[in-house]
Amino acid sequence: METKSQEKRILNYLQNGGKITTLEALDKFGCLRLSGRIYDLKRKGYNIKSNRIIVNKKRVAQYSL
Predict the structure, then answer these.
(1) What is the total count of domains within the chain?
(2) What is the pLDDT of residues 3-60, one digit of tens each?
(3) What is the torsional sign of CA 35, 8, 52, 49?
(4) What is the pTM of this model?
(5) Residue 24 structural domain
């Protein structure tokens, strides 16, 4: 899947109130590098927030707008 396509789909998901972790991005969008797509979106001016949550006893980043 193309990076641009993933970026647009992730942005749309976040704009509709979604929150997403790396594992969710892999499952929903086939995105192996969510942090890279988030970085690209932040550089374009989107105010994406990162929150640390616990999933299966591990701390992971959860992104939202």
Answers:
(1) 1
(2) 568 999 999 999 999 999 999 999 999 999 999 999 999 999 999 999 999 989 999 9
(3) positive
(4) 0.86
(5) 3-64
